[in-house]
Amino acid sequence: MKIIRLYTDEKGESHFEDVEIEFQEPTKSGRVSARLPATGIIFREVPTDYDLDWHPAPRRQYIINLDAGVQLTASDGETRRVKAGEVVLVEDTWGKGHLSKALEAKIRHCIFVPID
Fold first, then answer.
1. Burial 17-51 (b: 16+ CB within 10 A, else e)
2. How far apart, in Å, are the Cα atoms of 78 and each of 6, 51, 52, 108?
3. CATH number of the domain residue 13 falls in
4. Residue 68 sits in which domain range?
5. pTM here?
6. How far apart are CA 63 and CA 44, in angstroms?
7. Do the beta carbons of residue 22 and residue 58 sit within 8 Å?
8. pLDDT tens-digit profile of 4-44?
9. How many domains does one find in the chain?
10. 87 belongs to a structural domain
């Protein structure tokens, strides 16, 4: 399983990286990853016209889109379209940050899972 990581390098530029989530040996209920740290859960509803200018992430967190996508642009210029069901680990908590824009012209529901 792959997730998208958005991080800041030592110069303050944000970049994307694809990260492979490793699964442990199968059990009767399926394969699971190792347990990862988390400090809570936040539910969010984003309007259809969401178009946020450059900003760093407010904290290190996983973002799980439930029913619509988002377009993210890293400060290095790379743009990714993150679809419903995909997971992003945002770690660009300083520097220029990233752009974030609604896709599909519909309300997006997502879950934030802070890890700090």
1. eeeeeeeeeeeeeeeeeeeeeeeeeeeeebeeeee
2. 11, 17, 16, 22
3. 2.60.120.10
4. 2-20+38-114
5. 0.93
6. 10
7. no
8. 999 999 999 999 999 999 999 888 889 999 999 999 999 99
9. 1
10. yes
- CA dist 64 and 83 (Å) reads 10
In a domain, 10, yes or no: yes
Q: What is the largest CA-CA distance in the chain?
A: 46
Identify residue 16 by its one-letter amino acid code. Answer: F
DSSP class of 27: B
Dump pLDDT digits (tens) for 51-94: 999 999 999 999 999 999 999 999 999 999 999 999 999 999 99
CB 6 within 8 A of CB 16: yes
The answer to whether the CB of 68 falls within 8 A of the CB of 103 is yes
Q: Per the domain annotation, does 16 fall within a domain? A: yes
Q: In this structure, which amino acid lies at residue 19?
A: V
| pLDDT value of position 95 | 97
Concatenating the DSSP letter of every residue in 65-87 gives ESSS-EEEEETTS-EEEEPTT-E
Distances (CA, A) of 11 to 7, 51, 72, 93, 96: 11, 25, 20, 13, 10
Residue 64 lies in a domain: yes
